[in-house]
Request: fold
Amino acid sequence: MGAERENLWQKGIAMASTAVKPDLDLIWSEVDDQRRRTVAMLEALTDDQWDHPSLCEGWTVRHVAAHLTGQRMHLADVVRFVAAHPSLLRAGSLNRMIDRSARLQAALPTGEIIDLIRAGIGSRRHNSFIAPAGSLSDTLVHAQDIAIPLGLDLEMRATAAGIAVDHIWATRHGWTGSVFRQLPLDGYRLVATDVDWAAGSGPRITGPASALLLLVTGRRIALERLGGDGAAQLKMQTQPA
Reply:
């Protein structure tokens, strides 16, 4: 971590044990960084890789990338999109609307999907009712939803992951938490080993903030990178039938 970025971290990151809000300059710097690397990754993919299953159930890499094109929609933008695609009114739930929207966007040419993600670099526009830290979380997690099943090593900065996991943990029982598969994390203590972050109480689940972020957003595969008595217990608790 560079000295300037580390100083921003020390001054601005919100820890679960404090009421300090994260520094917005730091958040948007990390969003831009992740978007650049996501674009570079997408530009290098083959057609077969675009059609490969992602970590999001029922979505291919293309669907996830298409979903990332919709991170800067204000309420008026949503109204216009729904007006152009009235079938979305029959979605019946937030998750089904998100799914259908991604499938509609996935019909765009590959280059246009990439260009729409690239257009977000340098922008501080974010979806209505979603905090900037939520945009960061979405950007980080969905990039891994693409990279991990393709066997690609896409870095997630510890600084960014620390901000994001703190935000997701704090909001996991709110309406935005409903978009994630909820793992039974109440009753565990999550402890990051690369940033100063911990939350919860109970058996410890320890590891990098990037893996903890994937865990709190419902990606069970993250347990492969996590340790502690709590990780072993959670593996058993969430073992597929």
Notes: Strands lie at 189-192, 198-200, 204-207. The CA atoms of residues 179 and 224 lie 23 Å apart. The chain is about 50% helix and 5% strand.
